[in-house]
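tmp note - AraC family transcriptional regulator, arabinose operon regulatory protein
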Amino acid sequence: MITVTNCGHDSRHKTNFCMLRKSGVPNYILLLVKTEALFELDGAMTATNPNMAILFDRNTCTHYEGVADFYNDDWIHFDFMGEPSLLKSLNIPFNRPIYLPQMNSLSNYVRLLVQENHSDSLHREQVQDSLMRILLYSLDSQIALLPANSKSSRYYPIMNQLRMNIHNTPHKSWTVDMMADSVHISPSYFQHLYKELFSISCMQEVILARIERAKFYLSTTDMPVKTLSDLCGYENELHFIRQFKKKEGLTPTQYRHLFKAALEERFPYP
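out:
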């Protein structure tokens, strides 16, 4: 069983925050760091960016500090009781910053862990064990999906945040200049860097996000195609239909009919 010694969610500390454990602690520490910080790595203080996870091994020097107006993180002290360490079968490195594409999902698991830790739930230990396994497997999965060059690019965290914003709000009027300006680099370098990091151009990413959102609306609503195309950021319905067919091989209406037919075949009405 994975036991949680203690944990905290969205912990905020003001200026001059410093944590120093020269000999570490006898359990593992997982941090999800949401602000800029300084971490002692290989004997030197290293600046880190937000949306970073770091896993400290047992009995390892743990030293980190805030650098801005405040420091904010989620933290968990945990260990494995009566079973081998699950970490041996995962590819989560010790004592090294990892910049994550979906920090919020991991943070939500920590929030639930904290709730259980302060509850009198009948199955508190079992729930915490399950949540820790989900958290560790999710972290491992995110690491596996990281582009190889993300480790060497200081722009990866902010570029990945932009990518998530595109998929969260595909209806916005995304342009190359607008996206480049949001990460404070030139449009030409931005396009090169985006393709290098994500193996897709920034505008193709916008198209992909819009088509995926359109597929969701087509499969879950009966709204007209014109209304749907507006919601997905298209000013011209015909342009949307052409782009959708090029990507999916079907018109939006054909896609909707095919999806509904497949659904009815799988779940026939009584």
